[in-house]
Design a protein that fits this description.
DUF779, 3 helices, 3-stranded mixed sheet, Hypothetical Protein Aq_1857, Chain: A, DUF779 domain-containing protein
């Protein structure tokens, strides 16, 4: 199966730091304006996905959820979680006090990849 999400080494390192400080995590990418373009990192259970939001995979063992409407738009795109220095929009994400912000890089799946995509889990 083709994974819908991967993570860069820099993001992996930051996730390990956040786990040491906060324990289990979860990620959510909203579909609205402003913070909607930046994935948010919360303590597990610190944010509740809405009905029909899509869990597209695990990042270092932690769920990565995407807003239901945003997923419809990006369902044929591969997500790569990265991190940048700076203050992202919103400021609610756990990496913000560290002067970091998570970012997603997108690319379209190839025709071959689309034939074997890993399934998503919908919040019911």
């Amino acid at each position: 199966m083709v994974s819908r999400i991967d993570v860069t080494d820099a993001a992996r390192e930051l996730i390990r730091e956040l786990v040491e400080k906060h324990g289990d995590l979860m990620f959510y990418q909203a579909g609205g304006c402003c913070e909607g373009t930046q994935p948010q990192c919360f303590e597990k259970g610190g944010f509740y996905p809405r009905m029909n939001d899509a869990m597209i995979g695990l990042v270092e063992g932690f769920e990565f959820w995407v807003d239901r409407d945003l997923f419809e738009y990006w369902q044929y795109s591969h997500f790569t979680l990265d991190v940048l220095d700076g203050f992202g929009p919103g400021g609610f994400s756990l990496e913000t006090p560290l002067g970091k912000t998570f970012k997603i890089h997108y690319r379209l799946f190839t025709d071959e990849e689309r034939q074997d995509l890993s399934p998503v889990i919908r919040n019911e």
